[in-house]
């Protein structure tokens, strides 16, 4: 048997704008998905058929990376599904890792990240490589339009490209507030594209989010949490302008802000989750729960994809 695990992620700055090639900053979080696999007489995922829609990322990953006969797969995940924390990227990366490990191949992170991006792009219709690169590499990822120190790999789709860099962030604890509404990323990404084509203010918001991501990294690196928080708040307003907000996200953000440096939606939005940067995670968690949210505390995760026989 081989097992592989990969972390979830949290986008600190730049979701949606990164799909257009703008800079973005994400970090891996200490919630992981693990996939176990062994050869078997029939295809099984958690004891049922791999044809089930909920296994579409797993199915595409084995189709892409596994050359042998049927597998018995078991998937264990701590990442809540469809709430902007990278559950689909983590399961895709872990499945690609398990398939490589079972075939005795050496795990090359760049190859896994590229294949995982192709799968996510195929399912979503339009995507950036931020989730899949973070799930593969762990730690923190800075996406830029050009190559800088810490370059890991470059990804391309059509006329868009992304240079993916490793970054070290100070260890931070963040509070996630989850709406419990799982909104599909594909239609949200498509909606932003339409808005940008039709409305100059949306196009300007995309560019400003890119600048915020760069300044946000500088502020975080300098441990200037006050400035980081201001930038998170501004990023949240711009995401609302792009039409990916949700009343519950605003409600949780408003509840969290009195005890936070800043708070914003994270991931695709339309439901999903928000994140708060705070010195008092327990207070923020309670504040979000008081207004009806599910909240939990996450930390930076240095480990990316891990495969063990
Ligand atoms: O699918 P989510 O919620 O993890 O969001 C991904 C981030 C987006 O920028 C909205 C899409 C993408 O592919 O980068």
What this model shows, in words?
The protein has nine helices and twelve strands. The chain has 309 residues and is of the alpha+beta class. The protein folds into two domains: 2-169, Ribosomal Protein S5, domain 2, CATH 3.30.230; 173-299, Alpha-Beta Plaits. Strands 1, 2, 3, 4, 5, 6, 7 and 12 form an eight-stranded mixed β-sheet that branches. A four-stranded antiparallel β-sheet has the order 9-10-8-11. α1 links the parallel β3 and β4 (71-77). α1 (56-65) runs parallel beside α2 and α6 runs antiparallel to α7. The radius of gyration is 19 Å and the shape is globular. It binds (3R)-3-hydroxy-3-methyl-5-(phosphonooxy)pentanoic acid. (3R)-3-hydroxy-3-methyl-5-(phosphonooxy)pentanoic acid binds at residues 11, 15-16, 18-19, 84, 86, 127-128, 130-131, 185, 189, 267-268, 272.
Which key phrases capture this entry?
single chain; 309 residues; alpha+beta; Ribosomal Protein S5, domain 2; Alpha-Beta Plaits; 2 domains; 12 strands; binds (3R)-3-hydroxy-3-methyl-5-(phosphonooxy)pentanoic acid
Q: Describe the largest sheet.
A: 8 strands, mixed
Roughly what percent helix? Answer: 25-40%
| Quaternary form | single chain
Strand coverage percent = 25-35%
CATH fold name of the largest domain: Ribosomal Protein S5, domain 2
Spans of at least 5 consecutive residues whose pLDDT stays below 50 are: none
The sequence of SSEs as H and E is EEEHEHHHEEEEHHHHEEHEE
**Ligands (ions, cofactors included):** (3R)-3-hydroxy-3-methyl-5-(phosphonooxy)pentanoic acid
Cα gyration radius (Å): 19 Å
């Amino acid at each position: 048997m081989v097992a592989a695990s990969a972390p979830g992620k949290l986008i600190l700055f730049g979701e949606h704008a990164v799909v257009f090639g703008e800079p973005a900053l994400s970090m891996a979080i200490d919630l992981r998905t693990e996939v176990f696999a062994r050869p078997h007489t029939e295809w099984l995922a958690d004891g049922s058929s791999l044809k089930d829609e909920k296994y579409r990322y797993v199915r595409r990953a084995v189709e892409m990376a596994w050359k042998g006969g049927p597998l018995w797969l078991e998937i264990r995940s701590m990442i809540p599904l469809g709430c902007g924390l990278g559950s689909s990227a983590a399961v895709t990366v872990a499945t690609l890792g398990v398939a490589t490990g079972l075939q005795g191949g050496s795990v090359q992170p760049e190859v896994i990240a590229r294949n995982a991006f192709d799968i996510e792009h195929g399912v979503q219709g339009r995507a950036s490589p931020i989730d899949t690169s973070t799930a593969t590499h762990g730690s923190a990822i800075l996406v830029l339009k050009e190559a800088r120190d810490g370059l890991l790999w470059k990804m391309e789709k059509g006329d868009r490209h992304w240079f993916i860099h490793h970054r070290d962030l100070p260890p931070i604890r963040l509070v996630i507030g989850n709406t419990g509404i799982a909104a599909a990323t594909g239609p949200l990404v498509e909606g932003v594209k339409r808005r940008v084509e039709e409305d100059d203010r949306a196009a300007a918001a995309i560019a400003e989010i890119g600048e915020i991501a760069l300044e946000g990294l500088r502020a975080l690196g300098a441990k200037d949490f006050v400035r980081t928080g201001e930038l998170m708040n501004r990023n949240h307003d711009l995401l609302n302008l792009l039409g990916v907000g949700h009343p519950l996200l605003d409600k949780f953000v408003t509840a969290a802000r009195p005890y936070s440096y800043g708070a914003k939606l994270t991931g695709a939005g339309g439901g999903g989750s928000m994140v708060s940067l705070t010195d008092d995670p327990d207070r923020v968690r309670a504040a979000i729960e008081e207004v009806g949210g599910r909240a939990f505390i996450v930390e930076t995760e240095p480990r990316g994809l891990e495969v063990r026989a």
